Every structure is written in C-alpha cells, then in structure tokens.
User: What shape does this take?
Amino acid sequence: SMEEAAAAAGEGKAGHGRNGQAEGPAAEERRVGGSRLRGCRGFLRRNALVLLTVSGVVAGVALGAAVRGAALGPAQVAYLAFPGELLLRMLRMVILPLVVCSLVSGAASLDTRSLGRLGGIALAYFLGTTLLASGLAVALGFIIRPGAGASALNTQLGLPSALPTSKETVDSFLDLIRNLFPANLVAAAFRTYATDYRMLLKNTTSGNATWEKIPVGSEIEGMNILGLVLFALVLGVALKKLGQEGEDLIRFFNSFNEATMVLVTWIMWYVPIGIMFLVGSKIVEMEDIVLLVTSLGKYIFASILGHVIHGGIILPLIYFAATRQNPYRFLLGLITPLATAFATCSSSATLPSMIKCIEENNGVDKRISRFILPIGATVNMDGAAIFQCMAAVFIAQLNNVDLNPGQIFTILVTATASSVGAAGVPAGGVLTIAIILEAIGLPTNDLSLILAVDWIVDRTTTVVNVEGDALGAGILNYLNEKDKKEREQELKEVAVEAVANSKSEAETSPLVTHKNAVSNTSSTADPESKESVL
Assistant: This one.
C-alpha cells in the first residue's frame, strides 16, 4: 500500500505539471461565473423596486383582462380596486408634510442669492417648456385634425349632451391669485377657494324681468397646494433671515422632512401591489373600448403623440443642451416614479417617490430637489398643457369653427396660465379646458367626450408632467454645482493673490520695513527668541 501511495503521489506531481495549464482556465471561468452571479444579484437588489413596479403594471393588465370576462358589478369592481385605493390614500397622506417641510427646509438651506437665481431659472424653464408644449399641441391638432368629420359622437357613445356651465375666465384667474394667499392655513390643507354664481332677478323699468349672474365665493373640497407652497417658501426665507433664532425651527422642519422620507421609503414597497390593482380595476371598469377607440381614436392618437414628442424628444433635448449629459440615463433612474405616475394619474401622489428616486439614483442635491420638485408638481404641467390645447382644437374642429390667429394666441396663453392652477389630481385638467373654451367662445357641451377618454390620455399626461419636473431639477442641480465650482475657483485665486501680495508688501512697503526695523532694534537683547519667532 505504501508503494501504491508513493506511485499515486508521483503521478499527482506529474499530473500537476501536465494539467496546471488546464486547471488555470477552469478556475478563471469559475471565478468569472461567480463574479457574474454576484453582479446579477447586486443588480437585482439595486433595481428590485423598479422591476417589481413594472411587473405590477404588466400583472395589472393581465388581471384586468382575465377578470373582465367575469362581468363584475360595480360593488365587486370597487372591492377589486381596494388595494389600489389604499396606495393612493397613503401617498396623499404624506403630500402635506412633504411639501411644507421640504419647501421650508429647502428655502432656508439656500442663501438668498442662490434662491433668487435658481427660482428665476426654474420659473423661466417652467413657463418656456409649458409654452412649447402648448404650441406643439396646437400644431399637431392642425396637422392631424382629430375633430374633422366627427360631429355626432355624443349620441353614438351615449354620453350626456351637456355639462354644467363653467366659470368666467376672469374669475378663474382671480381664484388662482386668491388661492395663493389662503385666509386660513389649516383650511388650506383640505379646502380650495372657488367662485360660484348666484342668479339674481332684476326688474327693469319697462316691466321685463332679467336674470343677472353674480359671482359668490365658496369653498370646495381639495387641498389648496398653491397657497401652502407660497407660505412654506416665504416661511423658509423668513427663518433664514432670523439667523440664530430661527435655527431650531429649521432643524425641526429638516427632521420632519427626513422622517417623512423614511415613511415614503416604506410606502414605496407597497407601490407594485397597489399599481397592479389600480390598473386591473380600471381595465375591468372600461365600457366599450372598441367603440371609444374607433370614434375618438384620432384624438387619443394626437394627444399621446404630442406627449411622446414632448417627453421623448423636446424635454431631453433641453436637458442635453443645458448640461451636455445623457438625458435618457437620467430618466432611467426614475422608472419607479414614472410608473407610479402612469398608474395613479396624479402628479401630487408621485411627488414622494420622485423626490426619493431623484436623490438616491441620480444624485441630485437634496436642497435642489426638495425646493424645486414640490413647486414643479404644482406649477409645471407640460402634459396638461398639451392635453388642454389638443382638446380645445378638437372641440373647435368638432363644431366646424376655424380658429383665427387671435384665438390660437388666446389658447396658448390661457393653457399656459391655467395649467399652473390645474389640480395635481386625476381629471384635474378637464375643468381648465372649460376655461379655455369660454375664453375663445366655444360651447362646453362637448366636454363629456374629453371626459370619456380622459382616463387613457391622463396617464401619459401625468408621466410628461412629472418628467418635466425631474429634468428641471436635474438642470438646476447641474447649474448649481457649476456655480459652486466657479466660486471655489475664484476663492482659491483670491487666496493665492492675497498671499502673493502680502509677501511683496513685506519686501517693498516702507511702512512694513520701518516696523520691522523698530521691532529688530527692540529685540536685539534677545536674538534667540527672535529666531524662534521667525
């Protein structure tokens, strides 16, 4: 047996010499395979939420298609939508603390110069992109002509022929300004000011009775987000102005903000389940989709094409022109909030996940994202502007009205201005279409057609809305970092110049040399201490 062992050992040594080269590649392959597996696991761990969210949307479509054949009643559909309703309620719950705290801490953390500069750039970006979106929608409306030859659609689709009369254009703009300054901050958290009308009977001298419409102030259900945004901004600036006294309150709002973001992180893991049931229940609810698409297909196509062009080409081009960075890589980190926007149709409900993802995935400075995104979710509505302008052109063509340049200009301006006041909730833009129609003198009784397809178009509308906010935050973050680097460079140059100047003064200035001479004479008694000082 000893001989066999020795022989085996000899063979092993010889074999090691022969197979050393063969074992090397095998070990290398195993190492590469292990590293690939680890990389794959890391990728899945990092992007688990994105993959789950996208899977939730796909599963929702499959669930809706499967359950649609079961002919569920309204009660059963409501039960099916319950998990999705919970998601919406949770997201809306964190909107108020998130908006107020993030804006107060954001405004207080930026110095007045940066605040004014960034605010000005943001305002120009918001207005510019919304005007571009409105112009694109009107142009597409004239090219595609979605309303041509579609006159009797209300009767075909069995929709109500008229909706209640809308507000006057002037009252709509006055309401917007009134809501900027809420009379009661607590009430602003759940109520909004809206003008209503009362009909007053007036007797004329000739005996004929006439009715006069008188505006009356009223409060309607819904958060007055505009008023809260303005108050939070001003409060943040005031706390910054207080200096030492305001620091405790700024720290309180910062802590509150961070705690809210932790809540958002927890809610985000429920998003895939909620989205699945939201999408599924919406598919089950659909009436006759084939008739809807065949009769209003051109309008749906024109609106979605406008959103694709604006969101897929124009906004990324603006981002690239401003930052010289790849916009699609930036958007890749925002798949979760974009999917949430698609499912919930609410830019306000998407705000929590947008703030979380833009900071963690894209490295946007907290001060920028928490200052600009809440304002963007309220003010910047590119998708809504496209939707409203397209609807106005569609209804004009439906009623065989040729729009003149004055009316087109009115549509552009009114859509840009009224999208500021559009509520960040599902179907919030339909009310602002009524304002546009009133402004150009068109009847509002065809609005029911817009409502019929709103649930389809509103999804891409919300995605474009939140995409515009995110790219705006990316541009501001880039400009802020660039400005910071330039200032640091200037400070370095100033410091170098100061050092050089101090040396030259010491060598050339007669005052300094005189001073040195005096000190030298006074310190002749102790030359060692002088040397140590030197």
